[in-house]
Backbone:
């Protein structure tokens, strides 16, 4: 199955070039020539990744595409494509997973996209396993009613044996604790 990418940029040359490069490398690519069109496609389809320019019909168009992608139920990886690099904490605060600088060498761009997709898929695989464990209706521990029962259950789980009873022997000179095994 080909991974599906939405490419959003108002520069037609960038759209056509990147679309051709990505399709030659086995990606299924949709394009949008504006932030508005990109947001519309995000609502109508699902994508593995969204690559968006920052500045299009407005300075905030890229941020709006990123925000729409973050709200999408299918959780795509998001890359900010820009000719004007910004600080890492700035693009991360916008919601992007990675910043891609244009122009860039095709091989480097493909490596960055593959790495981001792999990281994103691994992250979501871990999150879905964690979510499945936390919502599991099966309980593996038996509720205890008092401290004595809790200690017994804890000892049984750790050793597989019945707990050892501690017998205190007291004399005038010393006090010793001597472990004794309960007869079975």
Residues:
């Amino acid at each position: 199955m080909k991974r599906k990418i939405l490419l959003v940029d108002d520069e037609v040359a960038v759209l056509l070039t990147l679309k051709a490069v990505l399709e030659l490398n086995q990606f299924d690519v949709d394009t949008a020539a504006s932030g508005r069109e990109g947001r519309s496609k995000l609502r109508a389809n699902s994508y593995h990744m969204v690559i968006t320019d920052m500045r299009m019909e407005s300075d905030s168009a890229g941020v709006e595409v990123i925000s729409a992608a973050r709200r999408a139920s299918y959780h795509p990886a998001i890359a900010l494509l820009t000719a004007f690099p910004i600080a890492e904490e700035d693009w991360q605060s916008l919601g992007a997973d990675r910043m891609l600088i244009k122009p860039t060498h095709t091989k480097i761009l493909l490596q960055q996209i593959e790495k981001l997709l792999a990281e994103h898929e691994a992250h979501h695989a871990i999150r879905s396993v964690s979510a499945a464990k936390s919502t599991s209706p099966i309980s593996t521990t038996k509720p205890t009613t008092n401290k004595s029962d809790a200690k017994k259950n804890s000892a049984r789980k750790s050793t597989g044996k019945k707990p050892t009873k501690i017998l205190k022997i007291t004399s005038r000179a010393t006090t010793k604790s001597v472990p004794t095994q309960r007869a079975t």
